[in-house]
């Protein structure tokens, strides 16, 4: 197992100790050194050659900003600033850190006094960033995928460019936007996962680094050519057909907000093929399903390639779903977008629509004997979700529950599913779109779907056709739920017996 070397830079002995203990919760991370000043940090980087540096900004002597500047000039290394929102004598230190080369800003609240889940996500995030410090030949290649029939691309001129990014995104976005001319003929919508305390610094950094007019989107926004609109913190950004903005609070228990999927799904629904989607560096799988929906509607879709990503998670997830028409190095994306935005037909051949690569969880190489069959219940109503879970567990099934369909790809990647119980009237995603994502997944093309609904007979009949479901159950009748799920699973039992 590869070990990733981390250097901690902070003038507080207590902070260094907490960071060391936190980072070494992951056995793949090892803290190889600690520095109290920027001068010490520069010397230790030369001798220790870490894969990742955590940097405080307020230190005696050479402070964090100067250290970042020197290190990025002498030995470029992924640097994560662990800081509070701060300014000194009118200087926005977090803005300056991004401007001088910091890869990421992380609030101290994500480490000091945070809950177990937040700490786990922090450690995973830093481990992935440490991995980005490896030489290219040390990195494992992305899993190959099997080709499937291509999807036709719309010939209509696009109306909007949507870009999603997460970990490592600020600098990737700045490079991409700066490669686009000021007269780029499309308005641009951006979703970047960013701590709320750093949002204003990020918007100003993006504006100054790219040379474009960058502003926060609001409920009154109408997308206009020549402007870049950034989704605000803790708000889901949706696009209407008339190119106006709709903002909604995030779904309950949402881990990530704003969500790239919310933007991309709304673009696919409102604009069909008259849009372009770009998914850049980031941890997790946000944006993958939305980009797949855009591609299926005829939109152009691009993901950043592994070599130029800080973290390949989100682009990899999109590639596994077959959502990427093109996989490109960051420096090449701008020229492609200029041609595509003007209605040109870029000469680069598209990536075939892919069948997701099999994984141990989703497609085992050998038959797996399981004591219980697994039911996935998808419903954004907490009480109904709990009713279905408790009912099916009492009947002897293994039950997975999902209250946010935007997390569907992650659930499918990690589990074997025997039947799906689906509420078709979800707030954030149409039931038919959920079914499309499930059917596209390796091994789930024929998985039985049972609708779980309170809709009237006419609506339910329509949803059954849209979702190509095998059956339906009225909410409030748990006995019927167990009976129908049993019937849907029984044929599979018969075949393997």
What do these coordinates show?
- The protein has 497 residues and is α/β, with parallel strands linked by helices.
- 36% of the residues lie in helices and 19% in strands.
- It has helices spanning 13-23, 38-48, 64-74, 93-100, 116-131, 169-178, 199-210, 260-271, 288-296, 313-321, 330-341, 382-394, 408-414, 431-440, 457-467, 478-496; strands at residues 4-9, 29-35, 52-55, 79-83, 87-88, 91-92, 104-107, 146-147, 161-165, 188-192, 213-216, 227-230, 236-239, 245-248, 276-279, 300-304, 326-328, 354-355, 374-378, 398-402, 419-422, 449-453, 471-474.
- The strands form six sheets. A seven-stranded parallel beta sheet has the order 11-12-10-9-15-16-17, sandwiched between helices.
- Helix 6 packs parallel to helix 7.
- The longest helix is centred in the last third of the chain and has 19 residues, at 478-496.
- Residues 134-149, 353-369 and 492-497 have low confidence and may be disordered.
